[in-house]
From TrEMBL, chains A, B, C:
Any Pfam family matching the protein: CdAMP_rec
Name under which the protein is recorded: Nitrogen regulatory protein P-II
């Protein structure tokens, strides 16, 4: 068994936990902050059988990876005479970090 | 040395930390939530010498395991004419999950 | 790669995170409490390449180690006629604990 210590953006954590759960993987959420990612991140502990690690990695990449999103700045028209200001802007969101650690023994009770 | 990353119900955490301490084992409490157990759990980091792992596992099982408890629903008599409603009900409480990870090096300073 | 699961006093955490960052090491802060150290500590997850572990250990020792500090008790003079009470007192502050765990695999996405 492996323990995947996974740090994702707060905004991505609920969707990742839900996707993991739908695929039968349980996770425990720890409150975390700063460091590897921008402020506001969540650390998940995910225990995974060896033959399922690639599946879980794919789910993490799907839900937590860095990607860009187009947002249109919410500038009131009166204050933005320059139409360029109303153009959508590409911002980076998400981003995940994952440490895979070997678990020598696991038990539930 | 091993690190026992242990997730228990919030309600069981104080008794577990106390029992560990009484047996000479220190633990660090992380706030956690959801996932492996019902809402409201606590993750403990417990560093343990190899020859003490079984002792600590036994303490975790003693204080954190899933067990049943009989509770009598607090229904006001006037609203529960059916005496069956006043019967004790068996509920599951507790439950722990433990990942044992090898520690290559440990230091205090 | 190694994961250094490091527990320091809350008061020392910002300086440690800053020193790590200045040396190019990222860390993730988990809220923690009790156990290995006096109340009010912080757990840091620090991912480190094998050849950098000694450097990071030195930074942890520099910023988090137990040391003494002289404090002068803030007793109002009127209430402390005995001049002995105004003498500086040596108190212990700080203290860190670090578990070094092997990371089998690491990814960012
Ligand atoms: Ni899927
Ligand atoms: Ni005992
Ligand atoms: Ni330096």
């Amino acid at each position: 068994m492996k323990l995947l210590i996974t740090i994702v953006q707060d905004a991505d954590a609920p969707a990742l936990v839900k996707a993991l759960s739908e695929h039968g993987f349980q996770s425990t959420k720890l409150a975390s902050t700063g460091g590897f990612l921008r402020e506001g991140n969540t650390t998940l502990l995910i225990g995974v059988e060896d033959d399922q690690v690639e599946t879980v990695k794919a789910i993490i990449r799907e839900k937590g990876r860095t990607r860009t999103r187009l947002i249109t700045p919410g500038v009131p028209l009166a204050e933005a005479p320059d139409p360029f200001l109303a153009q959508p802007v590409e911002v980076r969101v998400g981003g995940a970090v994952c440490f895979v650690v070997d678990v020598e023994e696991f038990f539930k009770c």
